[in-house]
Protein: DUF4158 domain-containing protein
Organism: Nocardia macrotermitis
Amino acid sequence: MLARAELERFFHLDEQDRELIAERRRDSNRLGFAVQLVTVRYLGMFLPDPLEVPANVVDYLAEQLSIEDPSCVKSYLDRRQTRYDHQDEIARRYGLIEFADIENELAAWIADQSWTTGDGPKVLTAGAVRWLRDKGALLPGITTLERLVAETKQAADQRLWRIWPDSSPPGNRGCCSGCWIPGKRTAASLWSWSGCARARSRRRRRA
């Protein structure tokens, strides 16, 4: 559950949002569309199950849309294609960039960071998330990003070792597994991690 202050800060629907949502006829589709819209804004990605969000997020959206029965959103999943149609429309209307269209640019950024800073997988992955969010790009699945970071860092390390053979440390390099979302990789962990990441970002800005 999210605090009321968080709901008001991150899940408020502005006039543009409301106009787009109003194009849906049924309450279930209006509410489901709104859930997907605020989810991608908050997490940077769409969820496999769009309704795997905190209950009070759904309630808060229903309140803003004057939908009396928030539970109607359960029927949003009745037609499977609807969620994907809405994801495509949200991405198009809000100018979100598909990960595949920016993956090579991200890989180059990761390689540069690894080469110039020596950062490990955890720092590189966190940086990659921030880079994607700053670019307005959709985040990929967790394992996809971990694999890209691990492979790109390994290539950068091998390049470094070829130039300075004595720089290679003994033993294996650490892998990226688990460095993004601690614990179980569920939608709940995504929501928890996103809130923690925002808190850390605020602390860095105040420092």
Q: What stands out?
A: The chain has two domains: 4-93, 99-206.
